Amino acid sequence: MASAxxxxxxxxxxxxxxxxxxxxxxxxxxxxxxEVALEFADHRFGKEAEISPAGMPDEEFFGxxxxxxPHHQVxxxxxxxxxxxxxxxxxxxxSILRAILRAAAFELIDRKDVPAKVVIDQYVEIAHAFFQGDxxxxxxxxxxxxxxxxxxxxxxxxxxxDELQF
Length: 166
Hints:
This protein is mainly alpha-helical. It is 69% helix and 0% strand. The protein is built from eight helices and no strands. 37% of the residues are buried. The mean pLDDT is 87.
């Protein structure tokens, strides 16, 4: 049973990493989620070296993130922006960081089946795959703040009255 759980965890980690890459690609090229999801499934999945050392991604999980982010883009960006310090604007953040924060925000808001601490840990680990400086700490701080707003009960807290859900 432990190996099945580990295998699912690895497949989800690979799916998250691929989703961040896909969301980044969508922002750069303006390509829609359906087209990018198909491109990844047809041309990148199955070529482990291109995706992740974690192995093959969970395609369903990948698709949910890649399609969910643009579908809820306004709510996600508003939620992420609220968790940044006043001198940071989402538009000014590095595009890879934006993709990481958007994918994680989607999971925190829409995927209640995944514990908030797992979401935070996974996306901080992904940030480490792309950045060697302070960016992973930035991701950790922003996601921690977002998780406390979106998943307050998991932390034994009451959700803020002004918190929107989708």
